[in-house]
Amino acid sequence: MDKLFTAPDGRPRCRWCAAFPDYVAYHDTEWGFPVTDDRRLFEKICLEGFQSGLSWRTILTKRENFRAAFHGFDIDRVAAFTEADVARLLADAGIIRHRGKIEAAINNAQRARELLAETGTLAAYFWRYEGQAVPGFRATSPESVALSKDLKKRGWRFVGPTTVYAFMQAMGLVNDHDPGCAIHAEVAHARAVFQPPTAR
């Protein structure tokens, strides 16, 4: 099957973003570009956990609702959530109302605070696991397996190797744009000039 599709602007793109019109902007401006902002990294790993068993479009269409419900994924604020916040979130029709995933996001904020105390920045920790693209489709990588294992050891939840690999793809830790995709070269350039953060 062809791995590319031609968008209305005539440029080839990764076939997965042909599924829905709102995927194209996400694919072109976010997916695969390197990210160092801790709040964005935390948001994404939480949203990937919420996606587990669902489509990314379900999460993407609710992303602004998630941001409002989780106070912009401010790590300190989410870490301080109480059972009253869990009840509030379970009643919020704008997000995925799954107790286990909600509680995992709160737990992971608490674990993120521990990582921040250790490394100074989540970005420095996550970028230790930067990977390289390989031909063909894959749902995990050696790096995502290693990162998942270490996160679980640190007490994080909903961070299996597949979830973590999707996080890595989106946050630029690997460039999984098809080589024939119009955005592949843009991401490759962004990664080439990118300086991975180091622990403070």
What does this structure look like?
- There is one protein chain.
- The protein has a two-stranded antiparallel ribbon.
- Helix 2 packs across helix 3 (56-69) and helix 2 (38-51) packs antiparallel against helix 6 (99-119).
- The protein has 10 helices and 2 strands, in the order E-E-H-H-H-H-H-H-H-H-H-H.
- The chain has 200 residues and is mostly helical.
- The protein has helices at 21-29, 38-51, 56-69, 75-79, 83-90, 99-119, 122-126, 142-153, 161-170, 184-192, and strands at 4-6, 12-14.
- The mean pLDDT is 95.
Distance between the termini: 46 Å
Fraction of residues in helix: 40-55%
Shape: globular
Strand order, largest beta sheet: 1-2
Order of helices and strands: EEHHHHHHHHHH
Largest sheet: 2 strands, antiparallel
The value of Rg in angstroms is: 17 Å
User: How many distinct helices?
Assistant: 10
Low-confidence stretches: none
Q: What is the percentage of strand-forming residues?
A: under 5%
Summarize model confidence as the mean pLDDT: 95
User: How many strand segments?
Assistant: 2
- Which structural category fits the helices and strands? mainly alpha
Binding site for Zn(2+): 14, 27, 177, 181
GO molecular function: DNA-3-methyladenine glycosylase activity; metal ion binding
Protein name: DNA-3-methyladenine glycosylase I
InterPro entries: Adenine_glyco, DNA-3mA_glycosylase, DNA_glycosylase
